[in-house]
Amino acid sequence: MYHGELVKLRALEMEDLDIILKHFNNLELRQYLATAWPMSRNAERQWLERATTMNPWKDGEFILAIEDKKTNEFLGSVSLFDISKQHQRAEFGIAIHNPDNLGKGYGTDTTKVMLWVAFHVLGLNTVFLLTLDSNKRAQRAYEKAGFKYAGIFRQGSYMLGKFHDFVIMDVTKDDFMEQFPPGSEVGQP
Questions:
Q1: What distance in Å separates the CA atoms of residue 186 and residue 158, rounded to the nearest whole number?
Q2: Is 31 part of any domain?
Q3: Closest CA to 71 of 106, 115, 21
Q4: In terms of C-beta distances under 8 Å and separation of at least 24 residues, what long-range contacts does 30-36 make, across chains too?
Q5: Within 10 Å of residue 95's Cβ, how many Cβ atoms?
């Protein structure tokens, strides 16, 4: 388990299925993910089965559950995907499922912890992300966690009847290590 100031990241478990489904099929959240259509219980169960057995180097993906550090409430999931051992890079993704938990610092804290894992545990050199240009809240959280603006992927997403640009952001190990050098942690258990 990895700890931040507000959150702890842990392995996903099959027992998480019901809580994942509780908020995951809402358009407010899904519009910011890869797909906006609802996922069936069976599809989510299959995804969860795969996510609970992944090896970052073999499968190229690493997904963890996000919990509130004080209450143990399940908040969502965070991932590194398209992990390249050769290039020592990965793409970052996060989903805080319940809209009531947005704007409380969970996203920023989770991002810092997952970047700590990427650089201190997995030994990656660069982590990048794509986010919709309209997702200003997420961009602020990513900047607070250490990501920097890297460019625009024009009209890279079709959502809700129109094309949208993606903002590309990245963070390097050197940049992150300035804030969290070897031997440091984001938070305590």
A1: 36
A2: yes
A3: 106
A4: 31/132, 31/159, 31/160, 32/95, 32/131, 32/132, 32/135, 32/138, 33/93, 33/95, 36/159, 36/160
A5: 19
Are the beta carbons of 48 and 72 closer than 8 angstroms? no
Q: Tell me the two tokens of residue 71.
A: 């209450």
Does residue 47 sit within a domain?
Answer: yes
- Domain holding 74: CATH number? 3.40.630.30
Q: Which residues pair with 169 in a beta bridge?
A: 129, 149
pTM value surpassing 0.90: yes
Q: How do residues 33-86 score in pLDDT, each as one tens digit?
A: 666 667 788 988 998 999 999 999 899 999 999 999 999 999 999 999 999 999
The secondary element (H helix, E strand) that includes residue 42 is: helix 41-51
- Give the C-alpha separation, 6 to 53, whole Å: 26
128 or 44, which is more confident: 128
Q: What is the extent of the structural domain holding 164?
A: 2-179
Indicate the number of domains in the chain: 1
- Give a yes or no: residue 186 inside a domain: no
Q: How far apart are CA 39 and CA 48, in angstroms?
A: 12
Sign of CA dihedral 67, 170, 129, 49: negative
Q: Are 36 and 28 spatial neighbours (Cβ–Cβ below 8 Å)? A: no
